[in-house]
Amino acid sequence: MSSDPTRPPETTIAGDGEERIKRFLATASHDLQSPLRHIAMYAELLLDDLEATLDGEQLQSLRMIMEKAQTAQRLTKALMSLAGGTPQVTPEEVDLQALAENIWGELTDETAAGEATLESDGLPSIRTDPALFGLVLRHLLTNALIYRGEAPPHVAIAAQREGTDWFIRISDNGTGIDPVYRERIFEPFWKLPRPGTVQGAGLGLTTAREFLTALGGDISLEHSDESGSRFIIRLPIA
């Protein structure tokens, strides 16, 4: 088969895509730092000034605002360092079960997917960066809720230790992905060519793979057909 002389080499396309995503991450993360810092600061000031006058639910909501803003600050700093080629990773012991349940609860509220179910009992604690790995989970679970089939969304998460690695499998009952796109789904700014595709930047799986690379792991599409998809994440144990 003859090559198309008008099409640049694949390496050039990939390289351009990587540079574009790095510029995007650096710019977005830098611009978010100031508002996030102010949100966290004002939440802390309100806690100091009003703690004695607020009831338990109000205090919990205000603490949640401050914690989420601080988490977002850590994440944007990590994104900036990732874009600069020197990722800052802060590993700690992470309760994978609690992390998955927290993210799932937030996403089902955001997407009004109250009928969606999560199967994830007995997930282990792992040592990783909670902000970066949490965003990886968020991307995968968001896709499972958005690219849904006719049945209510169902996601299963399972983890297995093999040698010096954790293998975490995330399965859904969504619309599936054509095997021909097994690697293209990880390309920056690329989206599945299907009718009614949800609008977005096309960076979710790309950034998930970048974060996992920074964590010493990787991700791939292990299986997909009309019954759903299964992604597999590899993370080093230490």
TrEMBL record:
UniProt keyword terms in alphabetical order: Kinase, Phosphoprotein, Transferase
Known catalysed reaction(s)? ATP + protein L-histidine = ADP + protein N-phospho-L-histidine
Q: Which Gene3D superfamilies match?
A: 1.10.287.130, Histidine kinase-like ATPase, C-terminal domain (3.30.565.10)
Q: Which Pfam families match?
A: HATPase_c, HisKA
Annotated EC: 2.7.13.3
Task: List, for all copies, the residue spans of the domain called Histidine kinase.
Answer: 27-238
InterPro entries per the UniProt record, alphabetical: BphY/WalK/GraS-like (IPR050351), HATPase_C_sf (IPR036890), HATPase_dom (IPR003594), His_kinase_dom (IPR005467), HisK_dim/P_dom (IPR003661), HisK_dim/P_sf (IPR036097), Sig_transdc_His_kin-like_C (IPR004358)
* Record CDD domains: HATPase (cd00075), HisKA (cd00082)
SUPFAM superfamilies found in the cross-reference section: ATPase domain of HSP90 chaperone/DNA topoisomerase II/histidine kinase, Homodimeric domain of signal transducing histidine kinase
A GO term, aspect molecular function: kinase activity
For this entry, the protein name equals histidine kinase
**In which organism is this protein found?**
Rhizobium changzhiense
